[in-house]
Write a structure and sequence with these properties.
Blueprint (H helix, E strand, L loop, with lengths): L12 H7 L26 H33 L1 H18 L11 H4 L22
């Protein structure tokens, strides 16, 4: 038996009634009822393919959130040398772009955390005056 190559939604109420009988009410009118769709990767069944993706999408979102927030922060906390290297790289890129506070532009830990002010080794911190005591 050849596979169905029709990738479109049912075109008529009769075709809809044959595929999803719960969608058709009394008198053959299409209703707004939610119906169960077989979640299956089957050629020619776009409704089933879409239904198969729906339950896994939410879990993928949580996994992505975990990897991009918690895991990256754990990596930087466990590798302070790499964090410092990235901070210096960011400093040079901000300096080349002409930003007003290179090394402290954007979201930095001293801006919203409890860390002290960072300065590029060999350079004075932002706001530091030469010869002034702190």
């Amino acid at each position: 038996m050849a596979q169905d190559t029709n990738w479109s939604a049912p075109k008529s109420p009769m075709e809809l009634a044959m595929k999803y009988p719960a969608c058709v009410g009394a008198g053959g009118n299409v209703t707004d009822e939610m119906v169960a769709v077989n979640a299956h990767f089957q050629f020619g069944n776009p409704q089933g393919i879409g239904a198969a993706f729906k339950p896994t999408f939410g879990m993928g979102l949580w996994l992505c959130t975990f990897l991009h927030t918690i895991a990256v922060e754990m990596y930087l906390a466990l590798t302070p040398v790499e964090g410092e290297r990235l901070r210096r790289l960011s400093y040079h890129k901000q300096l080349a772009a002409g930003l007003p506070n290179p090394g402290s532009a954007g979201t930095t830990v001293q801006g919203w955390g409890d860390a002290g002010e960072w300065k590029m080794p060999g350079r004075k911190a932002v706001g530091e005056v030469e010869g002034a005591e702190r």
